[in-house]
Write a structure and sequence with these properties.
The protein is of the alpha/beta class. Helix content is 39%, strand content 20%. The longest helix has 20 residues. The radius of gyration is 24 Å and the shape is globular.
């Protein structure tokens, strides 16, 4: 199995050209905390260059749907042909185990392929002897796509797929923690799209702010934290730019008393700890019926203790490190705070020895609403488990938050489970799974978890201007 020691030097993609000169910043390997490579940092001249290129490319791109679908398919093929190259960069900059990184690369290709084949509906609203009225999807214009560090490739591919299918052009900005996989993707697909259709700039939060504020931007498609989402919405308001905000979550899973703990615990563990817990719609609070509480906690703690923390290419590794130092510090602080508040760690509870942002999967009981670990998003490998006796009380606690991304009910009674899931105030509600997403499944949050939907037909609509096209058959000449 190949393994990179250093990240390749990649450039921004602007107007079809790779731009490597200018300032650079360090990218850190989360397994060793050493510098893994450097990425370029775009200033205002490059921002203007990318935005002008995207604006200039718009009309020609928007006019040829056949070419757009063909280019998306070629991009998907190219990603599939470059799996190992993309995987290794992703492993090095994010610490993801190789298998997870491979899934992410393949997921990125699958998203582009799905959009390449997705319908762009023309809804017929009236069709009679007097008129034909059709609802069509027009592009919005230049889309600024801003992504976080936990799924850099799949989130970029998702935004590119939807935006480009409709005929928009894109200026994308990855997280400064994991920029190189996106820049590499840009290099791999540079020749597939006409110059200016896809531009990728790397840099920090200031670059994101500049792209959002730019006069050519018409839609900001953002995935990241609630605070940044708020700032983006405020900035967009002055020019009435459109926003699609996919923000944080604090998903609750509720386990009823009729399930077998041994059967559901491995699935609950995956839902909470997959990707080291760094998933927006991971299980972040677990409410378990009191009759099963001890058994579920024991099962989860047993799986946690059997987890092997390690580097991406070690075949023994089942969990990687946290990807960033701030997230590692946050998880440490949340656990210390929970233990100080009377919590008990049944596994983990302190950082792993040695270098790197490794933190063992930690199952905590003895905490409830009012403790920060329960009230806010941990985005890491720590799960508070809370008993309940009355399911109405569990639903109330699940909904008693400003977040509203996902939630789930676990039960042997599927009809009762579906009815309870309807009562969860969230963009997605699952029964007996958590999370599960795909390009065909609309995804997004309510309340502070976001605005708008990505994926599926509603996702495509979010990257479109809906235009009512009306043709009146009343003659306009005497001889008609
Ligand atoms: P973040 O908000 O700090 O950064 C995300 C991106 O936004 C980065 O590229 C960053 O440079 C940029 N950015 C930051 N401030 C900005 C501003 N004011 N204007 C423009 N751009 C700005 O988030 P993060 O720490 O990278 O990601 C973790 C968060 O993302 C978690 O809260 C997680 O739940 C959320 N997330 C949500 C989803 C979803 O689909 N709902 C998916 C993945 C992650």
């Amino acid at each position: 199995m190949s393994q990179l020691e250093l990240l390749p030097a990649e450039g921004h993609l602007i107007a079809g050209e790779l731009v490597t000169d200018g300032e650079k910043y360090d990218v850190i390997d989360p397994c060793t905390e050493s510098v893994a490579g450097q990425a370029p940092s775009a200033g205002s001249v490059l921002v203007d260059g990318a935005m002008d290129a995207a604006a200039s490319a718009l009309d020609a791109w928007a006019s040829d749907e056949v070419a757009r679908r063909a280019a998306l398919l070629r991009a998907a093929d190219t990603i599939e042909q470059s799996v190992e190259q993309l995987r290794d960069v992703l492993c090095l900059e994010s610490g993801k185990p190789a298998l997870s990184a491979t899934f992410e690369v393949m997921g990125a290709a699958a998203h582009l392929r799905w959009y390449a084949n997705a319908p762009l509906p023309q809804d017929v609203l009236h069709d009679d002897e007097n008129q034909k009225v059709v609802l069509v999807r027009d592009p919005v214009g230049v889309v600024v796509a801003i992504t976080p560090w936990n799924g850099p490739l799949v989130m970029l591919a998702n935004k590119l797929g939807a935006a480009l299918l409709v005929g928009n052009t894109v200026v994308a900005k990855p997280s400064p923690f994991t920029p190189v996989s996106s820049l590499l993707l840009g290099r791999l697909i540079a020749d597939i799209f006409p110059p200016g259709v896809v531009n990728i700039l790397s840099g920090g939060d200031d670059l994101g702010r500049a792209l959002v504020a730019h006069s050519a931007t018409r839609l900001i498609s953002f995935t990241g934290s609630v605070n940044a989402g708020r700032a983006i919405m405020a900035s967009a308001a002055s020019d009435l730019k459109r926003v699609c905000l996919e923000l944080g979550g604090n998903d609750a899973a509720i386990v009823l008393g009729d399930v077998d703990p041994e059967v559901v615990a491995p699935r609950l563990f995956r839902g909470a700890f997959m990707a080291t817990g760094q998933i927006c719609a991971a299980v972040k609070r677990l409410y378990v019926h009191e009759s099963l509480f001890d058994a579920v906690v024991d099962q989860l703690a047993g799986i946690a203790r059997a987890t092997r923390l390690g580097t991406p290419h070690d075949p023994e590794t089942t969990m990687g490190p946290l990807t960033t130092r701030p997230q590692y510090e946050r998880v440490r602080a949340l656990v210390e705070n929970a233990l100080a508040a009377g919590g008990k760690a049944h596994s983990g509870g302190a950082p792993a020895d040695g270098p790197g942002y490794f933190y063992p999967p930690t199952v905590i009981t003895g905490v409830d609403t009012g403790v920060e670990l329960v009230d806010s998003e941990q985005f890491g490998p720590v799960l508070p488990v809370i008993p309940f006796s009355d399911v109405d009380e569990a639903i109330e606690k699940a909904n008693g938050t400003n977040y509203g991304l996902g939630g789930s009910i676990w039960t042997a009674d599927l009809a009762a489970g579906a009815n309870l899931a309807k009562r969860l105030r969230s963009g997605t509600a699952w029964v007996n799974r958590h999370p599960a997403v795909g390009p065909d499944l609309p995804f997004g949050g309510i309340k502070h978890s976001g605005l708008g939907r990505e994926n599926g037909a509603p996702g495509i609509d979010h990257y479109s201007e809906l235009k009512t096209l009306s043709v009146d058959y009343t003659p306009t000449r005497k001889d008609q």
